[in-house]
Write a structure and sequence with these properties.
The protein has 76 residues and is mostly helical. The chain has 4 helices and no strands.
Length: 76
């Protein structure tokens, strides 16, 4: 199958298809093990990327993260 895809010049399409199939399998396995309050369709929709993050939100997230790191004092 892989050899045929290479010979036909369709390696990229083959890899994309393979990735999509394995990604869906991973989502299904995770859903079965960890998600109890949604249907599989609801879970998959919740996994889709949300609206883009604004620059201000990104800057605030980075600022908050640095604040957490600055406050961290490791135990010796």
């Amino acid at each position: 199958m892989l050899e045929q895809a290479v010979e036909d010049g369709e390696l990229s399409e083959f890899v994309t298809m393979l990735w999509d199939v394995t990604e869906e399998e991973r989502e299904w396995e995770y859903f079965l093990a960890k998600v109890f309050d949604k249907s599989f369709d609801e879970f998959r929709k919740s996994m889709k990327p949300q609206a883009p993050v604004s620059r201000r939100e990104l800057e605030n997230t980075v600022k908050d993260s640095w604040g957490l790191l600055d406050a961290f004092v490791p135990e010796e």
